[in-house]
Amino acid sequence: MGAKEEHGDDEMDLKVKKYLRGEAANLEGLKDKKLKGQLAVREELYGKSAKAAAKIEKWLLPSESGFLEAEGIEKTWRIKQDSIANEVGILSTRNQYDIVLPELGPYTLDFTQNGRYMAAAGRKGHLAIVDMKTLNLTKEIQVRETVRDVAFLHNELFFATAQKKYPYIYNRDGTELHCLKLVQLLCVLVSSFYPAIVQIMHRHSKCAPDSLTALPSISLLEIRLRSNSVKGFTVQEHGAVLRLQFLKNHFLLASINKSGQLRYQDVTMGEMVGNFRTGSGRTDVMQVNPYNGVVALGHSSGTVTMWKPTSPIPLVKMLCHPGPISSLAFHPNGQLMATSGREKKIKIWDLRKFEVIQTLSGHAKTLNFSQKGLLAAGTGSFVQILADSSGSQNYSRYMSHAMAKGYQIGKLLFRPYEDVLGIGHSMGWSSILVPGSGEPNFDSWVANPFETSKQRREKEVHSLLDKLPPETIMLDPTKVGTVRQVKKKEKPTKEEREAELEAAVETAKDTEFKKKTKGRNKPSKRATKRRELIHRAKRPFLEQRMEEKEMSRKKQKTGVVTEMPKSLQRFVRQKAG
Amino acid sequence: MKVKVISRSTDEFTRERSQDLQRVFRNFDPSLRTQEKATEYVRALNAAKLDKIFARPFIGAMDGHRDAINCMAKNPSYLKGIFSGSNDGDIRLWDIATRRTVCQFPGHQGAVQGLTVSTDGSTLVSCGSDCTVRLWNVPGDSFADSDNLADNSAKPVAVYVWKNAFRAVDHQWDGDLFATAGAQVDIWNHNRSQPVNTFDWGTDTTISVRFNPGEPNVLATSANDRSITLYDLRMSSPARKVIMRTKTNSIAWNPMEPMNFTAANEDCNCYSYDARKLDEAKCVHKDHVSAVMDIDFSPTGREFVTGSYDRTVRIFQYNGGHSREIYHTKRMQRVFCVKYSCDATYVISGSDDTNLRLWKAKASEQLGVVLPREKKKHEYLEAVKNRYKHLPEVKRIVRHRHLPKPIYRAANLRRTMIEAERRKEQRRKDHSAPGSIVTESVRKRRIIKEVE
């Protein structure tokens, strides 16, 4: 009985830890007593609320996640989809199917955030939106052009495709809204959101509370819209885009094109937020880290670079594989990254330390993490699903699935909030059951698979109000609102520098030389060698001193120059020279 | 083989009939909401901006007096009523809701200098420079609500003539005594035409008097000789006195911490004192650029409002060094009296331009009935704003107040002067023997001495 209780306590502790969002602040070194008291109270409050959240989990989260357990000598990775189909209900068996469309493949997929809708895009121009609950085809169009990628925007009403020359945005009815050729053209995009927003606004202003928050942003929208249509004449094109990704918190559409340029476009204003040359050549491996909004690119040199829209140089550049990178994926908690290289290795990385945790052998054309942390790897016509069964970030075989021979898998994507894996391949698309992959409990305010159109409208407005500025994309998103530690770089004093120089010279003097062969061991040679060594030791110090002098002189000079009228400045230079 | 997959039937997760509410499911797992902190920050920023947009504190002016308004009194038993007395001897009772005069109390020959209402709300006491104290019956609620404004002037219940002109009056919080200030401090009973007690300490005129809300027998006065004096009615002589460098125009006791009081000083600052420890102010509230004329505490004791000769009204935290809010209009002249309403939602100011002005205590607060969801939303936004108030962007928006040009200039000048003084002091210190010049703290600097 006692042991059982203890076990329960441990479980509770784990749950509480999840809600605590990191360690408590260390108040030991705090001198301000008043602040210390306030912070202690605050911390206690956090602890209490985390405990409360963990306690009510029992009632708030009624659904349990799926599982697959082997009995006896069975192995889970030998269990076929057919035998799973025999065990589960009829509702779930509807999620096992193959759609064979041999003419227009290979297909790529994308799901909406709530997992309700799927967009499928065939290479040869076939676009389809499918309601995954009813399995009805919402819309199907043929664009008669190469389509390389498809991505839903914030909800199922809009999706973007990467076509032969430009990316396009379509709405649910298959109407082409925008061709992302020039910057100004996207201004119209706002107007397509606009009627819905205005409608909601009117309703809000009559009765509801949130009118307060909504109104000004609308006026802001309007103003920005006007100024934008007046201003921008900069021609910035996405070009022939290979991959598209949508950052849902920031309303940014990230794209990588044939010449290796990474672009970020704000889909609410149409503004081009970032436009960077990666300088590492053509790549079609791009993935957004859902945890912090950082975009990762895998290059043919084996490096992975991570980007944010406000800096032209990558945040991180890591060499992951000796050969080209074929795919990468992020764990939803943002701590793990999986990469696969052409040299038939799959590596799992810890993104907190940028260290490899595990190296698995095997080729993977595509990788994807599920919400619960299962890793799917697809190559050829074979899908392997790895699981971290022990909880110690040690991935091992969990399930496998072989498609009909000859199918080339192009894209694997877990369906959010369902135990389903979508497979896009050369002969259409398929879907298999992967027990334990999806989050069983959804939050109506975050992503609701049973969303009504009214709720969708509300959500659109709220997410627009909470739209994050591009500056909030950073490696550690918890850094927002914290104090940046200013490291004071203390300049060494003159004496200190002299002492350092002395020490360097001394060590150079004291170096012992090896006994060399005849002729090279002459005292004169050794003396010159020693002199050279001393010289070399002194050199950096002297150089630094010179540099500083130069800097101060330059500063002085510019100071004088700025004081003078422009016409007289050249005389000053002559005099100084 | 044991297997289970997620399977949601539509019936379980959607409402049964269209009249039902939509079913809501919550999962507070932090991994579902990415970038929480950034979202909160954006919300805080938006909330700060919205606060600025909705900050419209001025509700309306109440005009009717024909001369500058000198004093006001709130009725402790009737929320909507406020009394005001002007320099031409006119006393009026206003209905705040309709912003109209309900009743007039004619009789004073000179300026009305002090007004106060007994705690039960039945008697109004007024005093003026015509050397009289007048007692009036406060008209009841029915009278205040009636529209019959044709003949609404009242007659005094009693008129007590005394030797000297009066400057202020205040009623005991619990009891039937009231004190007047003038050449000396007189304690009166409702029923007697002569003071029951008289206090005198020093020769100069006493200009304000306030009873302690906690201990009914203690009162504080300030006088023209720059002193603040504490009296105890149970003793025959004054208790303690502190002399400052400049005169104190008005005093207000903190109703929630009755040992503390705040003094509105002529030197643009307010000083919060602990009555038990007068050698040092607890807090100095700076921001006004001219003499502070009147001060009144909010019934919650967390805030007080001040009116100043610089034509502005400011609201301070009880322990804050700088004001939380500044109110001004183009037409408002020197502010002589201010009052916090009894429900802590409004502030009323009376000024030289013969008008009373009604302000919201919280500039961007939503008036009227607030629905529960609205209330929750406001609370949430307040909380996130509070959490991110230290970030430069949020701080800039929250702190910014537009100032009229003369006040902006005067504040700059004052800052320059104080800085110059500080620098001079520092130089003097640097060039003298160490320890020979001691910098006194701001809380002590303006106090000359404490007398017992």
From TrEMBL, chain A:
WD repeat start-end pairs: 318-359
Subcellular location: Nucleus, Nucleolus
Pfam families the UniProt entry points to: BING4CT (PF08149), WD40 (PF00400)
Bias kind Basic and acidic residues: ranges: 530-553
Domain named BING4 C-terminal: residues: 397-477
Basic residues bias: start-end ranges: 515-529
GO annotation, biological process: maturation of SSU-rRNA from tricistronic rRNA transcript (SSU-rRNA, 5.8S rRNA, LSU-rRNA)
Transmembrane segments: none
Cited Gene3D superfamilies: YVTN repeat-like/Quinoprotein amine dehydrogenase
Name of this protein: BING4 C-terminal domain-containing protein
UniProtKB/TrEMBL annotation, chain B:
Leader sequence segment: none
GO biological process, one term: maturation of SSU-rRNA from tricistronic rRNA transcript (SSU-rRNA, 5.8S rRNA, LSU-rRNA)
Keyword terms of this UniProt record: Nucleus, Repeat, Ribonucleoprotein, WD repeat
SUPFAM superfamilies: WD40 repeat-like
Main localisation: nucleus
Residue stretches making up the Sof1-like protein domain: 361-447
InterPro entries hit by this protein: Sof1 (IPR007287), WD40/YVTN_repeat-like_dom_sf (IPR015943), WD40_PAC1 (IPR020472), WD40_repeat_CS (IPR019775), WD40_repeat_dom_sf (IPR036322), WD40_rpt (IPR001680), WD_repeat_DCAF13/WDSOF1 (IPR051733)
Subcellular compartments: Nucleus, Nucleolus
Protein name: DDB1- and CUL4-associated factor 13
Organism for this UniProt entry: Corchorus olitorius
